[in-house]
Amino acid sequence: MKTINPFKNLQLLAILFSVITIIGCSNDDDVAPEEENEVEVFTDVTLVFTNTADVNDVVTASAQDPDGTGIQELQILDAITLAADTEYTLTYEILNALDPADIEDIGSEILEEDNEHQFFFSFTENVFANPTGNGNIDAAADPINYNDADENGNPVGLSSTWTTSSTASSGASFTVRLQHQPDVKTATSGSNDGDTDFALTFALNIE
Q: CA within 20 to 30 Å of 40's CA: 22, 95, 154, 206, which one?
């Protein structure tokens, strides 16, 4: 009768386990790590309205988030007060100032990636003579006077033009929303496409 050697079987099992382990490790090494999308940090956003007839007439309104990626959100610091029947150019100062020794100009990054970003707006109806309506957050085709476009000819919104109504008003609102739209921005993409970098609603007064 043939005698079975249990130690030989254990040796074979150990060799088989080693081979499986080596193959598994090799496959893990072959898998490339997933690329992480860089998260933009916004600590300071300032809206800059410049009177097109007088460049020294500048109105600013700011929002600030002192803890960046922490639990706080951007907090509105100012109301917007514009003169009646006046044309303004709206631009921005957008910063990541978490490190005071290394302040990042996020506005320039948005410009470099303009084919992935678009500003959308909503506002109280009749506060502007041009554009009319209530903005394009609810419908992307609604009129906004964009002064810039990306390489595909689609609007960006780092610069836009606004003419206030001739009628004074108070207690109105003005919302600016920045959408990050990599691979989804088109001529018809809207404010719900992509991810929202920030959405800020300011009180607006026309005097």
A: 154
Strands 169-180 and 195-206: antiparallel
Q: With respect to residue 61, please indicate whether it lies within any of the assigned structural domains.
A: yes
Q: Tell me, yes or no, whether 188 lies in a domain.
A: yes
Q: What is the pTM of this model?
A: 0.80
Average model confidence (pLDDT) across the chain: 86
pLDDT tens-place string over residues 28-79? 445 544 444 456 788 999 999 999 999 999 999 999 987 655 556 899 999 9
Q: How many domains does the chain contain in total?
A: 1
Domain that holds residue 113: 44-206
Q: State the Cα–Cα distance between residues 128 and 166, nearest whole angstrom.
A: 8
- Tens of pLDDT, residue by residue over 76-93, are 999 999 999 999 999 999
**Are the C-beta atoms of residues 90 and 161 closer than 8 Å to each other?**
yes
Residue 202: inside a domain, yes or no? yes
Tell me how far apart the alpha carbons of residues 88 and 37 are, in angstroms, rounded to a whole number: 35
